[in-house]
Amino acid sequence: MGKIIVSANTRFLFSASSETTQWAEEKFHEGVQKYPPAFREKNCNKDLLDKIEAWAQKQHADGISDMIVIGMGGSSLGAKALESVIRHEQIGREKTFLHFWEGSHPTAIAQVLHQLENRKVAALFVSKSGTTLESRTMLALFRQFFPESRVTFVTSHPEKIKDIQNEGEETFLIPENLGGRYSVISPVGLLPAAFLNGNIRTLVGHYYQAIDKLEAEIPFAENPAKKMALSYYKLFTSGFHTNVLWSYSREFHPFMDWIVQLWAESLGKNELVRALPVPAKGPEDQHSVLQYYMSCANEFIHTFFHVDTYGAYSIPVPEYPVISSGKSLWRILHSQMKSIEMALDKKDRPVIEFIASAPNIESLGKQMAFWMWLVTYLAALYGVNPYDQPGVELGKVICKEILSEDKIPENLSAAFEL
Amino acid sequence: MGKIIVSANTRFLFSASSETTQWAEEKFHEGVQKYPPAFREKNCNKDLLDKIEAWAQKQHADGISDMIVIGMGGSSLGAKALESVIRHEQIGREKTFLHFWEGSHPTAIAQVLHQLENRKVAALFVSKSGTTLESRTMLALFRQFFPESRVTFVTSHPEKIKDIQNEGEETFLIPENLGGRYSVISPVGLLPAAFLNGNIRTLVGHYYQAIDKLEAEIPFAENPAKKMALSYYKLFTSGFHTNVLWSYSREFHPFMDWIVQLWAESLGKNELVRALPVPAKGPEDQHSVLQYYMSCANEFIHTFFHVDTYGAYSIPVPEYPVISSGKSLWRILHSQMKSIEMALDKKDRPVIEFIASAPNIESLGKQMAFWMWLVTYLAALYGVNPYDQPGVELGKVICKEILSEDKIPENLSAAFEL
Question: Cβ of B386 under 8 Å from any chain A Cβ?
Fold first, then answer.
């Protein structure tokens, strides 16, 4: 599955006394008992996988080249992370395409509508509750612009979508207890992956295997998710308040966004949690935010992701007046990451590195399992519920109020004219 | 140009006593005198603009449809921000395309190479120093894959690119004193904008006009950049440590990344500066990080960006079982933003809102001028140099060392196998 390595100055924070370990184990068991992790239930059985593959084959047989995924947050981020690694090996051979309709961005919608002229299109409506405002809005537009096209529904509440479903349209279920951000290994992520011809059996297999290896019953000493949770917890309770998640593999950039949601919504529950996740893209962000992290207060943990090999994609750089001549692009990327790690390390900033074997679906499945457990264990240490998101309800209520009124209230007052 | 509005709980922080104002004015003048802002020099005269437009016309006349922009950070972020708004009005009528080669990502390069088969391609090599590692590497690849194609160079050091330049290839200059992140209104941003048929004269005109209105000589009372700098400074020195920059206009998302670099590299100079910029995308990130901001400690300032109109692109939502029926997409987007602002406000989180008139080049030019001045004035209050980036040098030195050696050093040690 890969490994985790850490900088010298961080190492001491990774060693735990037996007393601390004991305390952590108790918290882990308490947490898992109080908030049972639904993601470890193996709902994706052979029947479901057969049904999903049959669905994908039907779309392909019907000549559908483009699937519009209508969904927000947990309904889209997992599919995007999967798309990114599935695409890695399909360059130049892509036959089917996903389009994500998330926010109500006029230009984005207009752009997709234009692109899809003269193509055969279907939609996947993904909403656990069945009532998500943005998603219903997008579906209304889809029905208008593609009146003849079919929609497949993914929800926990088939009764709530009756009013927007046409006769004969298929529904896949999200298990009721499986929260959106933990739902990627369910029809939510597997339908889009299968549509792209990703190997969903391999994905599910590696995911379940990793889930089992990190179960609450596996003791601390043999459980890297528990170890990593305690290590992060110790860092966050000793003055660090932000986790910068650097991805040095472009295929994993969308996976970082997935982690950010998983982490922020699961842990962000009260004032005692000070552990903001911030994504960063390497090497690009070396040329933007790195200056800040190198020079400002030592309050940031830096977590790096990269892959061990690009196989056939490792493109060599030709002889040229550059120091990188003769090296592969992967080697250059890796050297850049290492140099930033070393520079941060020299300034005593904690550095943690995750190594995945390759930018493929096997690695991603394992990583997803790992992060679901890690975040669950971290929540247990903080004593918070990793599966709800009460903080966002207020905004939704206000939004419905505003939309049902005639005008948008002016809650803010003028400061300056520009 | 638009306006800035603030939440009730933030308002008191926006009012300054005459004593504070006096102190701030002295700091502003001191800062600007010690570190003269090169961005206010009007280098883009008629001759240069003529030359840039002639260059773009020549590319078009030669049938070049695709321009690969080779550059990192300040050499690409401005062009991306411009591309995004220029595209807004060209949907379905795009004739020329930009591709950004930044990091050494094998898959990304392979993807562009595949896309560009059978198309007429040229490159724009943008490097202020002329020696940027990533950019020279990308250029080596470009020369290999497109041996017959022409490269245009943009640099402050024409003597440093002689070894990579072919005979007859054109060079445009970046003024030596104009730092990368302040260089968008120079050939760095204007060549790509002109290639896309953006109106660079309008852009430059609005930018210079806004620059003049915010000059150090314009007193505090009439200078929104000064007012805003002092307001942010007061917030950051009263316990807030992060500025969350929410863009609710997809056209301005890349502009947020531009601000992040401008802000982080200009201000991130020492441990006394605690003002991390973090970009957020609305409404998407309502479904990811918002839970954290609503429930965790009140340490984050929320700055919102939206546009006042989408004109013809404001797509109405048809009658449908949704609360948004009959509203326009812009109205929905706006209501979502307002609801989040109101929810944050109810929990006493500081909210600041920027309103641009439309997602077009006029607004962007003005906003860019505003943020350059704002960051410059903020730097003056902190007493730091907004134009250098000493913190990133160490990483560059280490990277060259690593690349010249045979193997990558193992600086980190194993923590856990996964």
Answer: no
Helix (H) or strand (E) holding B414: strand B413-417
- The reply to whether residue A260 touches residue B389, judged by beta carbons under 8 angstroms, is no
- Which residues neighbour A240 within 8 Å (Cβ) at sequence distance 6 or greater? A299, A300, A301, A350
Provide, as residue numbers in chain B, all residues whose Cβ is less than 8 Å from the Cβ of A343: 394-395, 398
Residue in chain B closest to A397 (alpha carbons) equals B339
Identify the pLDDT of residue A326.
81
**CATH for B39-198 (3.90.1150.10, 3.40.50.300, 3.30.300.350, 3.40.50.10490):** 3.40.50.10490
**Mean pLDDT across the stretch B97-121?**
92
Pairing of strands B276-281, B242-247: parallel
CA distance between the termini of chain B: 54
User: B286, B313, B335: which to substitute to probe chain A, counting the most A Cβ within 10 Å?
Assistant: B335
**DSSP 8-state assignment for residue A412:** S
DSSP β-ladder status, A151-155 and A121-126: parallel
A251, A84 contact by CB (below 8 A): yes
CATH architecture designation of domain A41-198: 3-Layer(aba) Sandwich (3.40)
What are the tens digits of pLDDT across the range B184-204? 999 999 999 999 999 999 999
> What separation, in Å, do the N-terminal and C-terminal C-alpha atoms of chain A show?
54
Highest mean pLDDT among A253-262, B111-120, B284-293: A253-262
**Distance from the Cα of residue B183 to its chain's centroid:** 10
Q: What is the pLDDT of residues A311-347, one digit of tens each?
A: 878 888 887 767 777 888 898 999 999 999 999 999 9
ipTM: 0.96
Cα of A21 vs its chain's centroid, Å: 29
A3-34+205-388 and A41-198 agree in CATH topology: yes
DSSP, residue by residue, B132-198: -HHHHHHHHHHHHH-TT--EEEEES-GGGSGGG--TT--EEEPPTTS-GGG-STTHHHHHHHHHTT-
Query: What is the CATH architecture assignment of A3-34+205-388?
Result: 3-Layer(aba) Sandwich (3.40)
Beta-sheet pairing, B3-6 with A413-417: antiparallel
A 10 A CB-CB count for A286 gives: 27
Q: What's the rounded mean pLDDT across residues A245-252?
A: 96
Does the CB of B402 have a partner CB in chain A at under 8 Å? yes
What DSSP character marks residue B317?
P
Looking at residue B342, what is its pLDDT?
93
Domain ranges in chain A are 3-34+205-388, 41-198
Tokens of A136: 């219903």
Q: What is the pLDDT of residues B293-334, one digit of tens each?
A: 999 999 999 999 999 888 878 888 887 767 677 888 898 999
The 10s digit of each residue's pLDDT in B25-72 is 999 999 999 999 999 999 999 999 999 999 999 999 999 999 999 999
Q: How many CB pairs under 8 A join A and B?
A: 457
Q: Over range A352-371, report the average pLDDT.
A: 94
Identify the CATH assignment for B3-34+216-383 out of 3.40.50.10490, 1.10.540.10, 1.20.1200.10, 3.90.1170.20. Answer: 3.40.50.10490
Q: Which B residues in the span 58-87 are in contact with A, Cβ-Cβ below 8 Å?
A: 72-74, 77, 87
What is the model's pLDDT at position B2? 67
